[in-house]
Amino acid sequence: MLKKIVIIGPESTGKSTLCKQLAEHYATTWVPEYARGYLETNGTNYKYEDLYKIAQGQIVGEDKADVRCQRPDVNMVLSRVNNQLLFIDTDLYVIKVWSEFVFNKCDNRILTGIANRKYDLYLLCNIDLPWVKDTLREYPDLRTRKKLFHYYKEAMINQTLPWSIISGSYEERLMHAITAVDKIL
C-alpha cells in the first residue's frame, strides 16, 4: 500500500532537498512543489486568486504521481523503483499558511482540499538552516521565519496524522527524516 509523506515548512528550510534525498534513499519518486514553477512562469506579483490555481496544480501533480506509483509500468519494475512510498514537496497546508499570512484569508476550496486529502506522515522542516536568497523567496528575516514556523507547527498539532519536526544540518535532517519514515513502514 502506498504511503504518502509530505515535507512542509517555511521557505528556505530544505524541503526540496529533503524530498530529493528521501526519494533517492528509498529508490522512489517525489512530487516537486508546484508553486515554484507557477511563479517562475507567471511572475512573483501573485494575487489571492492565484493561490487556488497553485493548489489545483499541486493536487494534479500529486495525483499523477500517485497513479504512477500504484500502477508501475514495466520500466519501473525492471529498475526496482520502490512504488510503496511517495514524497511530496509541500501540500495544501503550505498554501493555506501562505494565503493566511499574505492575505489574511484562505479560499474555502483549499481548506476543503486539506480535509479531503489523505497522507501518512508530515515532516515539518525547522528554520535552523541559513536562509538562502533566490528570486522567489520573500521572508529573509528571522522574526518572520519564526512566526511562519509557528503557523506550520500549529497546523500539525491540530491535525491527527503523525508528524515530526526535522532540524539540523542537511545530513542530520535526512537521518531524522529516515527515522520518522521507517516508523510508519
Which key terms come to mind for this protein?
185 residues; alpha/beta; 54% helix; 12% strand
Q: Could you characterize the architecture of this molecule?
A:
By secondary structure, the protein is an alpha/beta fold. The chain is 54% helix and 12% strand. The chain is built from 8 helices and 5 strands. Helix 7 (142-157) links the parallel strand 4 and strand 5. Helix 1 (15-25) crosses helix 8 (170-184), helix 5 runs antiparallel to helix 6 and helix 5 (92-103) packs across helix 7 (142-157). It is globular.
Would you tell me the structural class of the helices and strands?
A: alpha/beta
SSE topology string: EHEHHHEHHEHEH
Uncertain spans = 74-81
Task: Give me the oligomer status.
Answer: single chain
Let me know the average pLDDT.
92
Query: Hey, roughly how much beta strand do the residues contain?
Result: 5-15%
Count of DSSP H/I helices: 8
Output the strand order for the largest sheet: 2-3-1-4-5
Compile the SSE list and pairings.
Blueprint lengths: L2 E6 L6 H11 L3 E3 L2 H9 L5 H23 L3 H5 L6 E5 L2 H12 L4 H9 L4 E5 L16 H16 L5 E4 L3 H15 L1
Parallel strand pairs: 1-3, 1-4, 2-3, 4-5
Task: Give a brief outline of the structure.
The protein has helices spanning 15-25, 34-42, 48-70, 74-78, 92-103, 108-116, 142-157, 170-184; strands at 3-8, 29-31, 85-89, 121-125, 163-166. By secondary structure, it is an alpha/beta fold.
